[in-house]
Amino acid sequence: MEFEAATDVEKLFHQTPPLEQIDPRKARFPCCIVWTPLPLVSWFLPFIGHIGIGREDGVILDFAGPHFVSVDHFNFGSVARYIQLSRDECSLSPKNEALESNEMITWDSALRNSTHDFQHRSYSLLTCNCHCFVANCLNRLCYAGHRRWNVVNLAALIFFRGIWVDRIAVLKSFLPPVSVLGLGFLLGGTNFLAVIGGFGLALVGWFLVGTYCFRNLVRL
């Protein structure tokens, strides 16, 4: 019976109406993961940024601070990169928490549950950040058939498959770091670049260790 119920719900999930078109001018990104550079931080480490996730109507949700998920106000600037996800790649199972409570899972209901969860969490750049929120959403949706989304594979997804909104977004993302790092190199030489590179490697190492070695260190 549970398997039949899960199958029926999954059919309903995939019979949802078609999505509206992506509209960067109105900040509407249906079922998308979106990314924008962080002021100051991305100037030194351009691969770091702030991410959020779009509801089915395109409204962006992002974990922006302690106990606060921003709705329709993407923090730190307009979207620079995005990747639209297919609802067909979301899968459900009898173990899904919503099915146990006889509630039909949809894209928006999964995001709503994650929002309620993160509204009770403190924010930390190192242990509970915007990437954790989006990974939590994807795990609730069982996107791509698994619940192993984390800050590392999520960052890799947007980095390698993200689409630039336009040329201005590319300039906005790379002009500040090129200018800052170039100026730093002129003033500090290779020592400056070594310090920045070392800090970047340490940050990447932290998330790799916190994700794959000590799984409770980075909260999803």
Search tags:
220 residues; 6-stranded antiparallel β-sheet; 7 helices; 46% helix
Question: Can you offer a commentary on this structure?
Answer:
- By secondary structure, the protein is of the alpha+beta class.
- Helices cover 46% and strands 13% of the residues.
- The protein has seven helices and six strands, in the order αβαββββααααβα.
- A six-stranded antiparallel beta sheet has the order 4-3-2-1-5-6.
- β3 (60-65) and β4 (68-71) form a beta hairpin.
- α4 crosses α5 (130-141).
* Average pLDDT, all residues: 88
- Silhouette: globular
What share of the residues does DSSP label as strand, in percent? 5-15%
Low-confidence parts, pLDDT < 50 over ≥5 residues?
94-101
Structural class comes to alpha+beta
List SSEs in N-to-C order: HEHEEEEHHHHEH
Query: What Rg, in angstroms, do the CA atoms define?
Result: 19 Å
**Approximately how much helix is present in the residues?**
40-55%
Largest sheet report: 6 strands, antiparallel
Number of helices: 7
**What is the subunit arrangement here?**
single chain
Distance between the termini: 31 Å
Number of strands: 6
Order of strands in the sheet with the most strands? 4-3-2-1-5-6
Topology:
Layout (H helix, E strand, L loop, with lengths): L1 H13 L17 E6 L3 H4 L4 E6 L5 E6 L2 E4 L9 E4 L12 H4 L6 H12 L11 H12 L9 H11 L1 E2 L2 H46 L8
Antiparallel strand pairs: 1-2, 1-5, 2-3, 3-4, 5-6
Helix pairs in contact: 4-5
Short synopsis of the structure:
This protein is α+β, with helices and mostly antiparallel strands and 220 residues long. It has helices at 2-14, 41-44, 97-100, 107-118, 130-141, 151-161, 167-212, and strands spanning 32-37, 49-54, 60-65, 68-71, 81-84, 163-164.
